[in-house]
Amino acid sequence: MAYERVFFQRGRQRQILRLSKAASQLTWEKYCTRIGVSSYNVLKAIYLNERNSLPLRVLNQVVGFLRDEEWLSWIFDFRTENWGQAKGGSISLKAWHMRMKKNLRKYREIQSSRFRLSGNYKYVTSAGYEVRSSYELVLAENLIANKFLHYYEPMIRCRNHILFPDFQIRSGSRNALIEICGFRFEQNWKRLSRKLRIYLSNNVNAVLVVVYPKQNERLAMPVIRRFHKSVLFATIEDMSGLLRMLMRFKNEPGPVQVVTQVEALKRSQQTNGKAIHWQHLLATTPREAWIETLTTCGLPEIKIKRIRQVAPIEARLVKATQLALNSGRVPREALVEMIAGTCNGSAGDHFGSMNNLLAIAYSGLERFR
Questions:
Q1: Contact predicate 328/315, CB 8 Å
Q2: How far apart are CA 316 and CA 128, in angstroms?
Q3: What per-residue confidence (pLDDT) applies to 320?
Q4: pLDDT digits (tens, 9 = 90+) for 28-40
Q5: pTM given for the model
Q6: Burial, 320: exposed, middle or buried (Cβ in 10 Å; 0-12, 13-18, 19+)?
Q7: Which residue from 22, 33, 20 is spatially nearest to 62, judged by alpha carbons?
C-alpha cells in the first residue's frame, strides 16, 4: 500500500490539499495529523510543493473533508489499479477512465496534461516561467526583451488532437505558433512533421514558425521542402532575422534587441526547487512598469487592471491570487502584490502569511466574490 500513489495535473495536488484544509477548519498541524502526515513541514516540503505524488492512504483522508467530487477530474494517473476507498465507495483506475470518457474533451485535456507534467524544465527565465532547453531559453529571453506578448507551451485544440507548441505569440486577433526542434534525430523531425500536418489540416488561425539550430540543417531540409509554402523556417543562430520576421507579423517594423545565449543565461537561473524570479522583479522593476512586466510574462492586462479597481485591499489581493492560480503561476507574494499594485508586504500585513491568503483564495469565500 505504501507504493500506491495518485498523480494530479500540475498545481492540482496543492489545490486539493488547501481546499481540504480550509474545509476542515483545523490548524495545519491538526490537519496533518488527521490526514496521516507527520508534520506541516513535511506536508509543505513534499506534497504542497508537489515534489512527491500523494499516497492513496493520504488522499482518502484528504477528500473526506470535501463536499463534491470535482477533484476526480484533476487526476491524470495512478500507480496501481485499485486505489482504496474515497467517500465511502471503492474507485478503480478502470472505472475512473470510463467515467471521465463521458466528457471526451475534458478527458483528452487531462490525458494531455501528462505532457505538461513530464518535467525536464532546466531554466527559469527572467520573466519567471520555466523552459526545457537552452534553445527555448534563448528564444524566450529575446521575446521578453522585445516585449512580445507570448505564452509558453499553451494548449491548442485541433479537433481530436490537443497540441502544445513551444511558444504562442499574440498580436490583436492574430497568432503565431513557434516550434523549436533542436534534436539531432530523424524521428524527432518526423514527429514535428506530423504536428505541422495537424496544425495545417485543422486550419489553425496562426502563422507557423519552426526554429532549429543550423547544425541540424541536413535533417531539417526534408521538412523545409515539404512545408516551405505554409510554414516559416529560421535558425536559432539568426536571431536578428527571426525577430524581424516576428516584428513583421506584429506589424511593428523597427530595431530589435538581440539577446545572445551568454546574456540569456545571465538573465536566467537553473531550476532549483522551482524558484521563480518574482521577488527579483518586484525589487528591480519600477512600479509604473509592473503591468507591462506582467503582460510580457503572459498575464492578461485587462484582468490586471480590473483587479486593481477592487476594494477593499483584502479582496483585491484575493482576486490577484486567483488570477495567478488561473494563469498557472506559482502565487508567490511578490507576484500577487505586482498584480494587485500594492506595496511590498501587504499580503502578510492583511492576512498574516501568504499561506493564509492562498487558503482563502482557494476556498472562494463568499465575501470575496
A1: no
A2: 22
A3: 92
A4: 888 888 888 888 8
A5: 0.51
A6: buried
A7: 20
Q: Is the dihedral of CA 115, 122, 128, 348 positive or negative?
A: positive
299 shares its domain with 355:
yes
Looking at residue 113, its pLDDT comes to 52
**pLDDT for the residue 145:** 92
Which residues are registered as beta bridge partners of 131?
123
* Rounded-to-integer distance, Cα 220 and Cα 212, Å: 8
Q: Name beta bridge partners: 155.
A: none
Mean pLDDT computed over every residue of the chain: 79
Give the chain's domain count.
3
Q: Domain containing 183 — which CATH number?
A: 3.40.1350
Residues 130 and 208 both lie in one domain:
yes
In the beta sheet, which residues pair with residue 78? 6
pLDDT of residue 103: 61
Q: Are residues 244 and 180 in the same domain?
A: yes
Cell numbers that stand for 222 in this block: 526534408
**281 neighbors 128 (Cβ within 8 angstroms):** yes
Rounded-to-integer distance, Cα 10 and Cα 312, Å: 31
- Regions of the chain with pLDDT less than 50: 1-3, 81-91, 117-118, 273-276, 365-369
**b/e 323-339 (16+ beta carbons within 10 angstroms → b):** bbbebebbbbbbbbbbb
Cell representation of residue 4:
500506491
Same domain, 129 and 265: yes
Q: Which domain holds residue 95?
A: 5-116
Domain boundary among 208, 236, 269: 269
Pair 22, 340: CB distance under 8 Å: no
Instruction: Indicate whether 261 and 313 sit together in one domain.
Output: no
For cell 524521428, name the residue.
187
Residue after which a domain boundary falls, among 269, 292, 310: 269
**Do the Cβ atoms of 103 and 273 come closer than 8 Å?**
no
Q: Looking at residue 2, what is its pLDDT?
A: 37
> Is 89 strand, coil or helix?
strand
